[in-house]
Amino acid sequence: MRLPSAGADYTSQRPPRRRRDARAPGGGAAxxxxxxxxxxxxxRGRFLFVSGRGGGAAMAAAAAAGGTGPGGGGRRGARTAATxxxxxxxxxxxSGCGLTRGSQITEALLKERDKQAKWNGIPLLLQKLxxxxxxxxxxxxxxxxxxxxSPLLSMEAMAFVTExxxxxxxxxxxxxxxxxxxxxVDLLVEILMRPTLITQKKKQKISDDLIxxxxxxxxxxxxxxxxxxxxxxxxxxxxxxxxxxxxNKKTFLQTATLIEDILxxxxxxxxxxxxxxxxxxxxxFDQQQLANFCRILAVxxxxxxxxxxxxxxxxxxxxxxxxxxxxxxxxxNQATLLNIPGFIERLCKLATRKVSETTGTSSxxxxxxxxxxxxxxxxxxxxxxxxxxxxxxxxxxxxxxxxGLANTSTRTQLPQSMKIMHEIMYKLEVLYVLCVLLxxxxxxxxxxxxxxxxxxxxxxxxxxxxxxxxxxxxxxVLHGHNQNCDCSPDITLKIQFLRLLQSFSDHHENKxxxxxxxxxxxxxxxxxxxxxxxxxxxxxxxxxxxxxGKRGLLxxxxxxxxxxxxxxxxxxxxxxxxxxxxxxxxxxxxxxxLLKRGLLEHILxxxxxxxxxxxxxxxxxxxxxxxxxxFNIDAFKRFNKYINTDEKFQIFLNQINSSLVDSNxxxxxxxxSLDRFENQSDAxxxxxxxECRLLSYMSQMSMRxxxxxxxxxxxxxxxxxxxxxxxxxxxxxxxxxxxxKEKLPFYLRTLQxxxxxxxxxxxxxxxxxSLLRFWQQHYLNKDKDSTCLENSxxxxxxxxxxxVSILLSPDRTxxxxxxxxxxxxxxxxxxxxxxx
Length: 836
Hints:
The chain has 836 residues and is mainly α. The protein is built from 42 helices and no strands.
């Protein structure tokens, strides 16, 4: 149980902004978390622990080069001799020749050089440890030796954790470096694994305390000395062996923490099937252990992120998919987890249990004691005592009782604060794993299970008291941070909760479980009043699985969304979660349900009146507005009522035009809606068409051509990503609607004229030709799901394919072929854009 640190896509920074047009094969939803985002830089960090590395590389380089290196000092001759020993050891470890561990050096030499080199007796202690850990030893002396070594290393680890991050990266940690250099890491691995290597019937027994000491020292060395974690990660036998130690409750916490760090740097993801007796191991965990185990699972089920921006292009991803024909290891591991009996059910119980249902504070206090002993981490207790003192002061201020009240408050309030924070930490881990599984290939199976185990009603019951609880004056935060920064556990829990809702609702019929029975009845009434058929999913929703209480989870989310401060980092995630409810086939009843609750006015206030500057939040608002208004004449009428002056409308247009990548989904919605309204003969529709500023603006041919020209111009095949490929599809929508009206040649001719006006003939149409060629490669792949394009446009995918084929026709006499509008001198349509 450790507090998450700031950054990465696990916290308030958003995931890659995957639009609906580019969903991953296998039904993946927006923003699939990546393995790197889980582990490095933050988001899945520690309670005052960090996963960064110290200056070991610089020390190793200095030693190998014959410099003083860490531990140098004293007289020049002694320093040179000590350095020579370090250099020989490092050379031996790298080459396998000569000295490879400190036990090969004579005791006399080590004693002679120890004081001048400032080794603090570590090489001599390692020699003693080596002598008392031979295959036939009983390890009786090992623990006392480790008790001498441990404080030397834990002080350095504590210094790394608590000092300024930049200073920590620049500083050196001689004790941990010396411990590793003289073979300490390898020796501890041997000691831990010794029982597994002996064939005797009577196995050697290592005490729990000795195992804990070994694991703690290994972890501290990993923190401070660069390369140690990676070396351990390369030993698959040791990694798998560590999982066997998790069966012991006394060593679970240290084992889990070390495994998490090792897996975070491992080049190849482990396969959960390789873990001995995985199902029985998981079933042996209590709920607290299972929650902590989810930290490890997060690394094994999240897709590996290359960490390089150029590898996120669709070209690169398509090329990678061609190489990897089978499922990835992350997908295999997800399937493995789903096959463990009762696994999802236990996660749902963990996610939805109330604080009062926890097993008490004893296990939490035990973990705190282990942290304190492990890293001498007084800051942990300092933070908790600060909470207690604040609550005591608050209670004494509010009451005029005798002076003993403050002490009583400290004794009674602290455990409750700890229990709440404890539960928040556990729910973070569990919600993350459920979120990843909801975006995997087995999405429908996961949906069925979490619906059956009533995850959504359970979260609804926790919404006010835990998930979106009102902040008290005493909110536990990380050392050196404040309660509003992204590493606050309260904030991280909210964001993870919103991401789960987004994944749960996205293109799935189970989204109606976010409502209660009365709200489902309201949807039916809206359909009846509009004289349209009820949505099948609403009719078929199992009422025993929906939210209970006065409000469903979606309504609760809308309430807090409308109260969110302008500068809040939650706005992006809230908009994404609500938008996912509207995705898929457009539902008039769903839209009206949200319109009645003032959502449109709230969005327009944020875009226009508060003049939101955040590109992330603006994109999420534009996308949500597009889904809310698409084909809904009432929504456009409400829009015109709110945007009731030319000044307001100009601000709105400025926001749209400031970044078409962010606003193009709204442009697509307006274009599609205008086309449908123009083909209707209803008097109400005609009235809105004549009055609505937005529809009148888009009805101008010059405006549509301007959008089309810019949409094509801001993207290129080599820079297409999940974020901006929607611009290509929006431009295609404009041309498909033109084709329906037999105006496609006019649009292409106008684009040609605009090219000449810009004095760069061919640059738009050549680019568009290349983009459409890529579109065919990308969307006609058998693994691609085309239903997103159909649902978002209400245009059959067959018509999409036909339109692209017509535009790419090589016949220069065809009035609908792009090549007919590119002069021979400027033709550049055969360029190879395949990713090597």
